[in-house]
Amino acid sequence: MSPSAAFPRPIDSANTPRFAGPATFFRLPMVDDPAAVDIAIVGVPWDGGTTNRAGARHGPRQVRDQSTLIRLVNGATGVCPYDLCRIADLGDAPVNPIDLTLSMDRITGFFARLQDGGARPLSVGGDHLMSLPILRALVGGGPPVGMVQFDAHSDTLDTYFDGLRYTHGTPFRRAIEEGLLDPQRIVQVGIRGSIFRADDRDWPAQQGVRLITMDEVETLGPAGTLDTIRAVVGDGPTYLSFDIDAIDPTFAPGTGTPEIAGLTPREALRLLRGLRGLNLIGADLPEVSPPFDPSGNTALLGANLLFELLCLMAESVGGPPAARADQT
Amino acid sequence: MSPSAAFPRPIDSANTPRFAGPATFFRLPMVDDPAAVDIAIVGVPWDGGTTNRAGARHGPRQVRDQSTLIRLVNGATGVCPYDLCRIADLGDAPVNPIDLTLSMDRITGFFARLQDGGARPLSVGGDHLMSLPILRALVGGGPPVGMVQFDAHSDTLDTYFDGLRYTHGTPFRRAIEEGLLDPQRIVQVGIRGSIFRADDRDWPAQQGVRLITMDEVETLGPAGTLDTIRAVVGDGPTYLSFDIDAIDPTFAPGTGTPEIAGLTPREALRLLRGLRGLNLIGADLPEVSPPFDPSGNTALLGANLLFELLCLMAESVGGPPAARADQT
Amino acid sequence: MSPSAAFPRPIDSANTPRFAGPATFFRLPMVDDPAAVDIAIVGVPWDGGTTNRAGARHGPRQVRDQSTLIRLVNGATGVCPYDLCRIADLGDAPVNPIDLTLSMDRITGFFARLQDGGARPLSVGGDHLMSLPILRALVGGGPPVGMVQFDAHSDTLDTYFDGLRYTHGTPFRRAIEEGLLDPQRIVQVGIRGSIFRADDRDWPAQQGVRLITMDEVETLGPAGTLDTIRAVVGDGPTYLSFDIDAIDPTFAPGTGTPEIAGLTPREALRLLRGLRGLNLIGADLPEVSPPFDPSGNTALLGANLLFELLCLMAESVGGPPAARADQT
Amino acid sequence: MSPSAAFPRPIDSANTPRFAGPATFFRLPMVDDPAAVDIAIVGVPWDGGTTNRAGARHGPRQVRDQSTLIRLVNGATGVCPYDLCRIADLGDAPVNPIDLTLSMDRITGFFARLQDGGARPLSVGGDHLMSLPILRALVGGGPPVGMVQFDAHSDTLDTYFDGLRYTHGTPFRRAIEEGLLDPQRIVQVGIRGSIFRADDRDWPAQQGVRLITMDEVETLGPAGTLDTIRAVVGDGPTYLSFDIDAIDPTFAPGTGTPEIAGLTPREALRLLRGLRGLNLIGADLPEVSPPFDPSGNTALLGANLLFELLCLMAESVGGPPAARADQT
Amino acid sequence: MSPSAAFPRPIDSANTPRFAGPATFFRLPMVDDPAAVDIAIVGVPWDGGTTNRAGARHGPRQVRDQSTLIRLVNGATGVCPYDLCRIADLGDAPVNPIDLTLSMDRITGFFARLQDGGARPLSVGGDHLMSLPILRALVGGGPPVGMVQFDAHSDTLDTYFDGLRYTHGTPFRRAIEEGLLDPQRIVQVGIRGSIFRADDRDWPAQQGVRLITMDEVETLGPAGTLDTIRAVVGDGPTYLSFDIDAIDPTFAPGTGTPEIAGLTPREALRLLRGLRGLNLIGADLPEVSPPFDPSGNTALLGANLLFELLCLMAESVGGPPAARADQT
Amino acid sequence: MSPSAAFPRPIDSANTPRFAGPATFFRLPMVDDPAAVDIAIVGVPWDGGTTNRAGARHGPRQVRDQSTLIRLVNGATGVCPYDLCRIADLGDAPVNPIDLTLSMDRITGFFARLQDGGARPLSVGGDHLMSLPILRALVGGGPPVGMVQFDAHSDTLDTYFDGLRYTHGTPFRRAIEEGLLDPQRIVQVGIRGSIFRADDRDWPAQQGVRLITMDEVETLGPAGTLDTIRAVVGDGPTYLSFDIDAIDPTFAPGTGTPEIAGLTPREALRLLRGLRGLNLIGADLPEVSPPFDPSGNTALLGANLLFELLCLMAESVGGPPAARADQT
Prior knowledge:
The structure is a homohexamer.
Chain A: E1 39-44, H1 59-67, H2 81-84, E2 87-92, H3 100-117, E3 120-125, H4 131-139, E4 145-150, H5 171-177, E5 181-191, H6 202-207, E6 210-213, H7 214-233, E7 238-242, H8 265-273, E8 280-285, H9 297-318, H10 321-324
Parallel strand pairs in A: 1-2, 1-3, 3-8, 4-5, 4-7, 5-6, 7-8
Helix pairs in contact in A: 1-9, 3-4, 4-5, 8-9
């Protein structure tokens, strides 16, 4: 008997139409117990940190819906994540759409429970501030981790409006300050767009964060960009955060702070597939904002990127199925 | 302890935001066993009988999504269906998007299992042909039942294209021929629009079906229309079918065969609320077609109508909670 | 052999799907010779008189597209226009999108040719200025005719921007001045909305035009409104102009100058069907502007209204088929 | 010289196209000094109290845009508000999209400055929580005022999510508790939809608030509804709050908490025009949420309703122009 | 007299606006007789083989509509197809939206008639299953032909749902089995996306089909890709099938089975223009699905690709006009 | 005190939310006096020269709206234009939507006034015919200038429809004939698409205009393209015209004459940023047509391109702030 036979399986769209039934992530079963999974796919339906156009609170549901279009095996890498480890939809983190502090605490609590159960989180946002309470749960008390961040924005501003310290433009400044992230092991890819002040990107650079602007992505090419990323994060424990606004807003209009001239989906796939082998402790996909893309195409793209993240994490967890057989 | 405490409850949107978590009908739990519920809300994601614009296959999922906006209690009637009986989301009927005969058989099988378990079905389509296999499961072998049908079209044509006998324009002709429906106890409300031949509506009238055109709805008014409906169906077992195209297509653009100048939502609510006390063996809501309404507003309207149908069925099943306490 | 057998017939959607083939008005054949038809359905793809939001130039094509959804027989009146007289799609009037004067002359020329061939025109706009060159062709040199105008606006302003005399806000002032319309036999239904100056509606009233505002439509009710209309236009030769903006813009968003709180489609159908027996020399449906309604729902409504106009005109031309047999 | 010649005038769309230039409310000039106007039209671009679908923060700008379609004179009542008093666009209240308490304080400060300058506010939201800080500025310290509220929801819940006391579902409970509103002089029109608990509407009723549900609006008719409203609020100082979700969501889809089967625009106009002569100290139009209506039609409807509110307020301020001449 | 003077010409948009008149392919005349044309542009309004999101049945009409935007001469190659041979719109193949077998037979019959008349078909779908009945008409009984297929999917699955052998995922497996296509002369370009099973693409590869994945397109570049294509199909008779989902779904959202990260329109043009000189017996453009792209932009792209296919076929038929003079 | 302190500043979105207040270009103050600014950003809300799909008249307002999303500093070049010179929103040019000649004269008059005041114009269209009256104001009577034109079309046709000499397809033929542009110093980038006649592009080439087709852009690459542009225009006074349809219509669907396979936003940014140092006398951004892109994404792209043009012009005007201190 194959070891993976006991792993949760998505409903197979070759037998049951993709449009049938309630939508869970990739048509996986809903599971409550974190100990029952290796990877927990979860939603964080919250945009309390958004300074401009809200709507990312609706991201998890629409990504779930579009994820039902995706089949079982990665056509490019041959990876079937469901063969490698136990994966399920663990539902959404509890949030409060109005009380920011309460929401952050609850998100941390939810992810701490996943952490305690041994489940690595793959999260769909929600705005990018969510990465802070997630990192508190994953890393809090331990040594800081590295991060690969795909994003149009560095999200390392100090304050916003009247000195607010917690917004979707500030999470990684806080995470560095709180010792959750090692700035020397942070690389940010796809940075671009107009800025508030000429020195907006000085602070992260001074901390040692490696910012790769879109211009530099073009210059380096995919291979050079990947080399740079790997050089920064190395083999240590690493978090991967893919803000959908890293992608050009024509491909991903459903987001709150669009910046023209971003990554194409082809570049994104090439970069993500080039990250096989990273030591991933978790990943997230924030800033999918359905009200700004009723067609659902942004969520479709998001669901595909989520599948790539899932494949990376499943390999990180599981290695080849044979090797994992004795672990389940 | 209150008897209803043991009934399944929706997630309460006063505590958990409506946009959180996967969408089931009214945020109810998913249940597999028909014997565990009194009313089974199910989807039939199938439009194999559609002759013009397909898309109703996507109806159940979008209605599930929009139904999460609805609270627990009917503000007009004070009914909380979840206090009256056991209600859950039983998932979708199995269908095949290409093989019509196979799909019809499977739908009948799925509903027969609900019937065997004692669960009355409340179904979301899918195109209107689905009512035929449902009625086969509910009525097959027993005496014919009555039907209240809200619809722009009589759906009693004989054949379509090259003599096809099974399309969404023919289900009730077949149901009458098969002895599933008693034509003397069928009333069709909201009939209108252009017709193929001047005698299109003669056959149902000859069988005794009572057609109430939109012109007649206007003349009778809500009260007169309700009197006519009750006079036709009386106290016997009755099926209720609410084709979303009964509603004016400006209010419900997401449908395959729109006919202008239909019922308003206010009229629909008034008519449905006026049907309290009917002996309902089941109900359905076909023809919600999301591709023709990306905004989801048709599904929002559909979800509200579904809630009204649910309230009617819950009262039909349960009567006041006190009376039901010994049944659970 | 039935006399109507020789009349042009639409493709029957009970045999050929509605979405098949190029779209002509009601799936009728294209005909070049005006003498071959009694009623010529034509487009005027021109919005050169539009002062605000252009786009009605695209109206004829989208109305053709949506008109393929309409079946052969009027379900409310039982009229099948194609049994009553010879009807076809005569194509579009030649226009120039930039040169207003040239366009008006060409439109007049096109309709004069229809007139010479004995075909009564049923036209789809195009902005409302088109009615002026049409009336020049139909009436020019003869006695003025009456008009039933459904519209949010009186369209009898004197000038616009810098003294322009020809815009879609002025056609009927010009038509009265040119002796094409008898102001005593003009009735305007559905007038509403904000106005430029308090006396905007004084001039038409002074000429004897009967303006029925929306408030008055509500007060009179459909029957009273119809009585008033008939009292104004009587039995004489009458033109019928149905500006789509007479309809509430939620039902008909695709128009250039929307005014909230207009006629509902149900009221429009009731009013149009109440006009059977008028002596109609022609009719038009202006101001359908597809760019402001990508869904096509406005054009669907427009196509249905056009079908009602066609039924009225066919009865006006033909009487019962038997009586018309000797004319073909 | 006419007294109104000195009043600010909108740009006239008969001379300058409506689509030209930056959009201010009704194409009025921007004015900074509250003492320079009698009525200040302002925006409150803030939806910090929204529990479900955010987006009303974008309301003021889109209403400004659509308001440029409106001409100078009310076609139904003949009122030209710009002849009656000094009206201008005073810009937007300062808000913070993340800090709720700070935003409420700033809104109160902004409106207190208007109040001090003698300008009565006509505000465009923003979510409905904004009415609370506005009322604090207008009424705080003085005797409570009356209110006519058009709304699908009573907005008098006590708390939401985890005991939150300030959300868009609670403003009028707080306003009553704070002595800003006299519950005996509050009337709420258009209440409907599903509710959280059967007793949701008991508290306001117990305080003396008069709730007129949609069912009752239908029963009373416009005249009866108006009589009831006037009986409640009488001649005392009154605030008018028109939540766009009072309107049926097919007419006004761009809102956060849609409830089907609401008021039609025609009913809304009739009701508003029936309120001439009220003693209005201010008015607002909350809950226009553009992300849920990219077409802008909700904002177009909102702009028209705003114009009706403006006409009411202008008459309340000014009386006939002659009488006002000595005041300017 | 120039030989091409006798060829059918599109209406020239430099003289008649593009939006005028009913829409035929490229504004060409409608022709019934296949013997009157060298190339027949036709529609196949049928999506009976669609397993997921239906809607391609509406493709031909919307492509016709958008094709009216295209001028007479290919700006890149200088080819004016209408100078090279006789081209017209031959209407749509007869189909039945419900009966799959009947539809396939009728499609074959329709194309057999074109074949008998000497007209090479250029078809607009419709879902990709349509290529099978077309190939049966073109090739049936003769030696198998080659094929250049642009597609995200190989469409060579064996069965789908419950063993269905005829779906839009299986046509080319059937065509190979039926001896219509020579697998050694099939090349598939743009293959990508998730797959059902790891061996989904093994069967075609085993038959000798050359699959060029998107990754390989990137590696080869346009020139290398073209070399590969030419090496596979050589000079023999070849069919060209361009599934619109070969293109990235952001550029072509209106399709039923979108796969992110596809060809760009620039790549597509470069590849198609690089295929001049192929021996083309026919071509098709399937899977344009308007309900998933109300804006029409997918159809606009489709119409442009269709024009490129037309230019290729016209050169294949005609060679330089001078050489063709004696053939007409 | 820093010299730039006296320059007009946009509202800073780090303090006031981007969605607050009426929308002016980049949230700059409105200024009436041309002498008060170095660069006047203005709208030309006029599409009187449009031969196909109108709507560019709505461009300026929607670009203003989207421009509020842009921050103060160019993240790629570090330029903050508001530090370099005096910049403001000067409103819209007066136009008449119906009278073409009158509009052209008024546009010329408006820009002559700017010219007289010493303000260089940066204009948002409007259709491309607007460039002709602008150039008449800027250059009339003086020596011809050079032009860098990004465009899908050469816009150098002689006449259109019936010999019309002034349309959006002819402005630069007229400008060359009138001696406003030196054809030897014109370079057109991004030319592509189908053409009316094979020789459409011969005339400009014969005059010495350098056309760089999309194929050539691909061949030359950004650096080669920039070299070519600079070689053509040199150091002399140059006008820069960026027709939004130079961009691929998937990125910029809101335009009247879309041609597939255009520039990407990344290429556009790279090309524009490569033009630093040109001697720019003015620039424009025509053909943004909101009705064909209700989402506003085209205008968002347009606003970003406008910001790049502004940075180029500010550097051209100002040089480093220190050098400019004595000029203000």
